[in-house]
Structure formats: C-alpha cells, structure tokens
C-alpha cells in the first residue's frame, strides 16, 4: 500500500485562516506573492520542530503564539489548529486513515494550552485513540463496532507535545503508531538551496552515507556519498545535468585539504583547460545540482517541500525537472511552490494547486478544485496550464 499524507487541514496559522488541502504524490502551489504558499510549507516545518524541540521552543522560534496566529480580522483568534490524515501505520487505509490533530489556544491570563489527539486503525476492526489535554493523557481502545473499551490515564508535562514524548509508550498503548507518525513528521524537509553555502567545500562524509542538508550546504559531501552508494543514480544525475548544461562533460571531486577532510565539486567542461570548481559556477548551475541531488536522494523523507523551485533556472530545465519530480514522487511526496507559468505549462491538472488571498488577509487554498481545473483545460481545447493561470482563467493571478 502507498504510505502517504492524504490531507492537511489548518486553521489560524499565519494567513491560513481555514484551509483544507488534499494531497497527492506531487502538489505544485501557484499564486501571487503573499497568497500563502510559503505558509503551507511552514506548517510542516513547524510540526517537525515540535518533534525535535517540543511545542514551546517551536513557537518561540517563530516569535511566540501572537506571531504565528492569523493576523486578519478585528480580534485575535483563540486557537491554532492543525490536523493531518495519512496512511502511515500498518493497518491504516484511505477509508480508515491515521489522524493527528494539534490545537494551541490562549487562556485567560494569556497562558497557553494545548490539546492533541491521535487515532489509529489496529487489527480486526479495532483502533486506538489517544488524547492529551493539560497534563493528562487518555488512551482508549476502540472496538470494531466503534464503541470505546479499555481506558488508561496517566500524566504528562504541561505543554509538552505528544509527538515528542508519546513514542515512548508501550506498543499495547499505541507507542509504535505514535512513533511512526512522529518519525514521518520529523523527517519532513523544507528544501531551499543556499547557493553561497553549497559553493563551499564540505567535510568529507565519515561513513559514506551523507544525508542532504535542507539548504544543500553539504552538497559536495552528499554528491560524493551518492557516487559511492548508487552508481546508477549518480550516472543518471550527471546525464541530467549535462542535458541542461550543454558544455558539461562530467562532474568530479577535488580534495583541497586532503582526501580525509574536505571535498569540493568540480565541473569538467568542454573547451576549458581546467575544471571549474563549484565556487566559480553560476547561480543557476548550483541551484540545478542542488535540486538534482534532492531528486536522486536514496533515502528521502516522507514529504519534501521546495520553495520557489524554478528560481534561477533556465526554462529548458523545467521539462526535465517535472519529469524527475514525478519519478521521485514514487518515493517521497512533494509540495512545491512556484511563480513560473513555464513550469505550470508542464503540469497535469491534478498536480496544480491554485492559491489566492482574500481582502481580509486569509488564504484560499485550493482556490479551485482539481476537477474544475480539468474542466477549464478541456473547455479551452487544451491550452497549457501556465497560460490559463497567467490569463486569470484559473484564478490566483500573478
């Protein structure tokens, strides 16, 4: 079975006043600046930070509750709500998905409170519901007829997130399922190539299995690791780079501080007497290599988010990029943000998510259903999606 995230529902998180977003393998967000594309990606970064650091530090990192809660309207909303549906655990399905919900609220006296819930399918129609409120955790068994059976109650530190603490529960209380959800969320990557960082030498990978940093700061070490781990993937990456960079012969490595300390990427190009170090390569070339590294990652996270994926790339790279995104989406879901009509031209209607923003500051995502997009494309006699979007036929004006 395909284990993936099915739906995101958000209320009062930044511009996301009330958003319900069905998620497929490849999801490309299009819309003007300020429409809320980045805020959708930020939800997943926030949840990953909750697991890594707990709830209060994740909020503090963003300036606290008042900086995260929806700013529109006359009154500050009382709570933020995030809900996910997925098919991650062993017995889940599209009709009986895993469900996780987090509510963060403001009490009188301006103190914060949180409420969390987990629900999982188990065996023979049975399930498990875990709710956390205040300093109390309730674990309830659900029988096949949906009646509640056994119940356990125990304590938890106030404001501590169940995502960060409950994986230590025993399996019979749902610890393995909570752990699966937490591991998936913690793995979520919001990827944005830092060109300056990616240019620099990287420390040599110690064990030969270098994970790719979220900003590609260790690009050289990751590519070296990929070459040693998966020769086939490495050869395909080099072929893809050469298709977009016509003068490229191959990609190689140099070791300025010795082979055990640092590594740099060098490009061997036709017509040049010496190789070009990545430090001297163009902005677009480095962005391209970072994205190809992401797409050929042999151990990707459950969900990969990419901000402004087309930034700095020549339009001829987009055809290849969309093809590789579809191939890689068999291993990791993608949530992509773009401003490029040229990229939208290369998408299928079900891959496009149009984003708009109302006058009250709230985001409308999706602004138009996938079926409606399909209907408009058919009525237009097959005009490309980017052209339809640019013309305003799909909403989400540039």
UniProtKB/TrEMBL annotation:
Q: Does the keyword Transport apply?
A: no
- Domain ATPase AAA-type core, first and last residues per copy: 26-342
An example of a Gene Ontology BP annotation on this entry?
A: DNA synthesis involved in DNA repair
Q: Which residues form a coiled coil?
A: none
Check the record and name the Pfam families matching this protein.
AAA_21 (PF13304)
Which is an annotated GO molecular function term of this record? Answer: ATP binding
Say yes or no: keyword Cell cycle present.
Answer: no
What keywords are assigned to this protein? DNA damage, SOS response
Q: Record's PANTHER family? A: ATP-DEPENDENT ENDONUCLEASE, OLD FAMILY-RELATED, DNA REPLICATION AND REPAIR PROTEIN RECF
Q: What is this protein called?
A: Putative ATPase
């Amino acid at each position: 079975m395909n284990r993936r995230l099915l739906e995101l529902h958000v209320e009062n998180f930044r511009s996301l006043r009330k958003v319900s977003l069905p998620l497929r393998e490849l999801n490309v967000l299009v819309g003007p600046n300020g429409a809320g594309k980045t805020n959708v990606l930020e939800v997943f970064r926030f949840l990953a930070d909750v697991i890594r650091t707990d709830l209060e530090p994740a909020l503090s990192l963003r300036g606290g509750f008042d900086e995260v809660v929806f700013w529109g309207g006359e009154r500050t909303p009382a709570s933020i709500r995030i809900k996910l549906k997925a098919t991650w655990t062993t017995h889940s399905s599209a009709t009986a998905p895993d469900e996780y919900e987090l509510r963060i609220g403001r009490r009188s006296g301006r103190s914060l409170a949180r409420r969390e819930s987990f629900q999982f399918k188990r065996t023979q129609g049975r399930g498990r519901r875990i709710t956390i409120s205040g300093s109390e955790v309730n674990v309830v068994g659900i029988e096949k007829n949906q009646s509640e059976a056994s119940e356990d109650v125990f304590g938890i530190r106030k404001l501590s997130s169940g995502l960060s603490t409950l994986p230590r529960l025993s399996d019979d209380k749902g610890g393995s399922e909570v752990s699966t959800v937490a591991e998936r969320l913690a793995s979520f990557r919001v990827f944005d190539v830092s060109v300056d960082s990616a240019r620099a030498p990287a420390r040599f990978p110690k064990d030969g299995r270098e994970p790719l940093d979220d900003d590609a700061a260790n690009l050289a070490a990751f590519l070296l690791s990929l070459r040693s781990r998966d020769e086939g993937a490495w050869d395909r990456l080099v072929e893809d780079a050469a298709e977009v960079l016509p003068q490229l012969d191959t990609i190689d490595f140099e070791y300025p501080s010795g082979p055990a300390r640092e590594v740099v990427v060098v490009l061997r190009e036709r017509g040049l007497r010496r190789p070009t170090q990545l430090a001297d390569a163009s902005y677009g070339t480095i962005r391209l290599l970072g994205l190809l590294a992401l797409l050929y990652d042999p151990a990707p996270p459950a969900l990969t988010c990419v901000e402004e994926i087309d930034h700095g790339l020549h339009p001829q790279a987009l055809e290849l990029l969309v093809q590789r995104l579809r191939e890689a989406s068999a291993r990791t879901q993608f949530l992509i943000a773009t401003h490029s009509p040229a990229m939208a031209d290369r998408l299928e209607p079900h891959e496009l998510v149009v984003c708009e923003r109302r006058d009250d500051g709230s985001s409308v995502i999706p602004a138009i259903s996938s079926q409606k997009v399909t209907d408009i494309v058919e009525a237009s006699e097959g005009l490309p999606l980017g052209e339809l979007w640019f013309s305003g036929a799909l909403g989400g004006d540039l």
